[in-house]
Amino acid sequence: MGRSLRELYLHFVWTTENRDAVLRGELEQFVHRRFRQITEERGLTMIAVNSAWDHVHLLVRWNTTTRISDLVREWKSRTYTEWNHDDQAGPQLAWQEGCGAFSVSRHEVERLKRYIVDQKRHHRDGTTRHRYERRYA
Fold it and tell me: pTM here?
């Protein structure tokens, strides 16, 4: 029987509801940590996750058993529910409906990873790249 090789990479982008700039400090750290944990629970590999105040970027090595819509729903619903559960004094978290999901070639992975890691600098310096910042709000 032959062997199969699958090497799939997906780049996800979506914004907070109303593009509220709440992804800062403790909330931002919580979201990034939970996205990584949820991804690992599903047997996927998070290559990069970062945000720039009102939107997130995730780069994931995908498998063939996870439906994209299921994991996006889980990322959003679990972070929303867990963060907002006690009516804490900090900012509330809400996500836009939908998202952008883009396939990435193996040759583009390292470049996109560096771009995601430097999100805030790119937005501050005006060096964003349209192909990586496609928004679906």
Answer: 0.87
